[in-house]
Structure prediction request, 580 residues.
Amino acid sequence: MTRLFSVIAVLVLSLVQPVSSQTDFSNVLSTQSPTFLDVESAFQFDFKQDGQQLVVNFTIADGYYLYKHQFKGASKDAVIQLQPLPKGVEKYDEFFGDTEVYYNAVALTYAIDSAPADAVVKIRYQGCAEAGLCYPPTVKEVFLSAVNSQVNDNGSADSAPRSQQFELSSLLSSEQSLWFSLSLFLGLGILLAFTPCVFPMYPILSSVVLGYKNALSVSQALKLSFVYVQGMAITYSLLGLAVAVLGAQFQVWLQHPAVLGVMIVLFCVVALAMFGAFELNLPSAWQQRLNSISQQQTAGQYGGVFVMGVISGLVASPCTTAPLTGILLFIAQSGDLTLGFFALYALSMGMGIPLMLFAVTGGKLLPKAGAWMDIIKAMFGFMLLSVAILFIERLFTAPWTTWLWVALLIAWGGYLVRMSLNYHQFVSRLALYLPALALLSGAVYLGTQQTQTVQHPAVDFVKVKDFADFEAKRMAANQQGKTVLLDLYADWCVACKEFEHKTFPAPEVQTALENTILMQVDLTENTPRTQAFWDNFNVLGLPTLLLFDTNGNELDKQRVTGFMNAEDFAQHVDGALNKG
Prediction:
């Protein structure tokens, strides 16, 4: 409690008088503790720029410490990147729990990609005294000398391609029109709507908006789908802000077996309802209102659809793409939460526009009465089961998960064939036979592929156990004159598996990586061993591929996040690692 009162007193004082005025906190807290140093004396600040490197030094007084996770650097004028921080001292803190802190001294190193003369970098830090006083976050300004990113250390032009996420981050930081930037991310979101990340949302939205026994008008379907997309977009945007500001690995947290287990059960239960095992009915009064086309839908129904949108935002959040990473980089470097949120929201709304069109047109084109509606509901049930299998694949990496898909496709196709027997018209039967044939063909294909699995891996990765093991193997590769690619992998990362099975085996990629040692670390579990990689490399999500030159330096502006096809990836790697 004493420490809590101390924090409250300091925060109140900071509202009256800024920290930079070197207020003597000991006068305020003299009744509770002995003399405390002011923030400037407790944490002496100094910096030095050496070309494209900025070193920030803190001399920490005895009995005081700085939090590792509270260091933040941002600049609207310069492009900077915080290099891996040294290992701190493990400490249990009553405010932050298990954390790392620094005693005596610590140095922060920033790589400067580009900067005009007198560019301002804001350095934020926070520390405490062992005796019980915590200081508010403090910000210092550093002025840089000009750095030209187009010239490398040898004085020649640097032609290495910058990754898309860094280009997008720079675009947000530039003087481009706000509406232009938001429109760009809206368009990128529309493109993302056709990727595997967004696929689970289609059956979810279908079951929510189109799964009623009675027809919905176009306006009703549009309103419901809009509310659904709002839930998804707001959740997706808020999670993005949390990742960028707190540096927390929400991907890992949301892939906890307990969370995935709840999701699997939820979608299986809703699927059973679609199959008619039991009814998920609205109150009769609401059903009567739905029967009237002109009647507005109730607030309770909107609330339920919004909640399903929130769940969909959680479903999509583990998917890392270049546009998403670009926004997160911009927020982390600039600290502009407002623009970052609206950029994330525009990206999310772009992902939702095709979903709304699907809901409106689907509701208009599907049959509106008769036994067809039972078939349509069952179709949604099978689609929801496919989402459950996607979650199961995040929990387990085993051949038997493929047989789940085979079983689902056979059951789905068999159901359609069985339903076709109830119809005598050729057109009706054909409408059921064609999708049944496609589903059963897919089951045969998957089963054949599974039984003909190649016995040798297409790409040999050097497996990395922990961060120290990686450093040792990287140095060994550099001594051989080799560059290094580190693949940060997790079983729950769908795009990571696409990289491994589609991109890396391609001949053009193998050629581009001839002089490169491929290493891979498994980040599926959230442990201190895996956390070291998240922290040391400031990873914002998976998949992430790190490239290191022959001197062991990471080419951070060529870092790859999100899936890339073989052709694009080969060009990117060749330009980054084999230039000159």
